[in-house]
Please model this.
Amino acid sequence: MTISMRHVVFLGAALVGSLAAATRPTLAAKKSVAAPPVAASPPATGQVYTIDDAHSFVEFSVRLIGFNRVRGSFPQYEAHIYYDSAAVERSSVSVRVSVEGVDTHEPERDHHLESPAFFDAKTFPFIRFESRSIRAAGDGLIADGDLTIRDVTKPTTIPFAITSPLGIDPFDNPRFSAAGRVVINRRDFGVIGPDFWNRAISDSVEIEFEVGCRRWNFDRLGWGDSKRASIGQRIFESAERSGMTAALKESRELYQKERGSPDWNFGLFEYMKCAGRLGQHGRPRDGAAVLGQAIELKADSTAAADVATVRCQRAELLLRAGDRAAARDELARAESADSSSTYVRALKRSMGT
Model:
């Protein structure tokens, strides 16, 4: 139990650490035949980043009183960080961790931790951390925020350091890294357990994390796979030849005619890659139009969390296009789709809403 609880904290810390960072692994990329790729560079102002979970770790450990420690983790989580390297104090972090799936390398113990005796994953499926402020402290930083486990929310302070400053990673993505360590008391959050284990497990849970945070360089992401044509690539290249209005008219007709065909990839990420490339090429409003079509055609058959993600990306593009009112409206729709989305929460903080 302690183990799980502590992992939650650690996740919060990781997220916070993430808050100062940003990146993820990338896919192999194909260059657009219609326009040369645009090299990514660290942004001069704050942006929203996500944790690169393939190149990060968040671990917790708790001691069997008088004996050895037990380690564990929560493998399923999401986090978004608004990070401004020029003014770190303006940064914020939002983390959502799934309790179900806690892993201590012992299935029977894991199921026990998920049960009402400990975390009660069915009733309280998520552990959350929301920062309220980021401040300098000695050689590092501190994230002050609210940690929620079960139905208990407590002010929590997480110390961390930026281990790799914002730069360009080997995949050409803007990225930074952060690391930290924090100790929490499981009892403070109602993680008690049966009498025997409550006495046998230490109250203190240690959380250690090292995370990478990134934003995609969409020019370096490939278009789907070699067996299927990408709708994103088709829109991007058609827009270069014939303009966005004609490209979107063609793509809508293609979707209506070929959406069941194994030869075409109409996945949401194909639209998102196209929109992202357009944004990087100085055409954020066109990118927003692409995502508008994706929402129109696919929202009814798409999970709410995924719809919220697409709407958040669209809000960012509208903001870059200078249409703050439309960006706020789109963000409100994203929140309506998934009010607990960490992307929504980080973007709201970045926009001051």
Remarks:
- Residues 1-39 have pLDDT under 50 and may be disordered.
- The two ends are 36 Å apart (CA to CA).
